[in-house]
Amino acid sequence: MLGPVLLAAARSESIRRIVSAAPVTRPVVDRFVAGERLDQSLHSVRSLTDRGLDVTLDHLGEDITDRSEALRNRDAYLDLCTALASDGVGPRVEMSVKLSAFGQALPGGHDLAYRNVLPVVESAAAAGTTVTLDMEDHTTVESTLAILAELRKRFPQTGAVVQSYLFRTEDDCRALTGEGSRVRLVKGAYKEPAEVAYQDKREVDRAYVRCLKILMAGQGYPMIGSHDPRMVAIGQELARRHGRKQDEYEFQMLYGIREAEQARLKAEGHRMRVYVPYGTDWYGYFMRRLAERPANLAFFLRALAGR
Ligand code: FDA
């Protein structure tokens, strides 16, 4: 029941100030966020790639309020592209971007987000890697998929994210099953109204399986973004049933979550990609992780209580 409250708090400026200033917050944040600076995040990336894991890097930032912030976020990603190019890591380290960090919610935001993300996608391609567009709340889906379609005309390797809790997603999956289409399927992390999204977890899970079946049967490259052992097992079974080789799909999990399971999947020969967030604007991301799982919240509350 606390989940919706935490998701509402994730968008509250006053609660952001209180949580961010609490001295105990930092060590808990460190469990989910790979540092505030690029060099710290690259250190985490190297430790993951040394263990055979692939990475998608997220420079944290979302829900910005002016155009200069959008430009700062774009520049942070361009710096990241430069660093990845000099490391020569290739597609094993890609990037995830939230279009709200590029101005999508500002006036004229659709065009602005496209203009800001385009140089990042170009630089990623020049660095031998690619970008996946994260999916945010349901009001952004049309715009994000339209930007994706535009980007894919020149950069077909650009990835999409779809959320099984939205009623529309099965149709979106069908539209995204073309050859080479990289699609990360997740359950969805935002507070959505009953008009557009399943509210019951079991319904969300059932929809996840239906979407996974569509993606696995298609010509694209499914990316199974879940920590749920049932979804992982079903993903493995569907891949086997459709005769997919281990480089024709991948698993994805978040930094700091189920690390033993990440290692196990890798050891079994699967491609396993870890989503690594970094940067100073960690609040919204952090609150969504607390909302997702009572154990994460309990960990935070124990730290607050000094135990
Ligand atoms: P869920 O939270 O439903 O839990 C199901 C079961 O999984 C649990 O009962 C438990 O067994 C296991 N489990 C889950 N978390 C665990 C933990 N910490 N430790 C041990 N067991 C655990 N969302 C979004 O809206 N837009 C996006 O772009 C993205 N991007 C994204 C990328 C990647 C790589 C991932 C993994 C996730 C996202 N998400 C996302 C978040 C996603 O929508 C969702 O909120 C979380 O992944 C939680 O859902 P799960 O499927 O992981 O399991």
TrEMBL record:
Keywords associated with the record: FAD, Flavoprotein, Nucleotide-binding, Oxidoreductase, Proline metabolism
InterPro entries in alphabetical order: FAD-linked_oxidoreductase-like, PRODH_bac_arc, Proline_DH_dom, Proline_oxidase
Pathways per UniProt: Amino-acid degradation; L-proline degradation into L-glutamate; L-glutamate from L-proline: step 1/2
Substrates-to-products reaction catalysed: L-proline + a quinone = (S)-1-pyrroline-5-carboxylate + a quinol + H(+)
Keyword Flavoprotein in record: yes
Cofactor requirement: FAD
Any Pfam family matching the protein: Pro_dh
Domain Proline dehydrogenase: 43-299
EC number: 1.5.5.2
Class in the EC hierarchy, top level: oxidoreductase
PANTHER family: PROLINE DEHYDROGENASE 1, MITOCHONDRIAL, PROLINE OXIDASE
The name this protein goes by in its record: proline dehydrogenase
Organism: Streptomyces gossypii
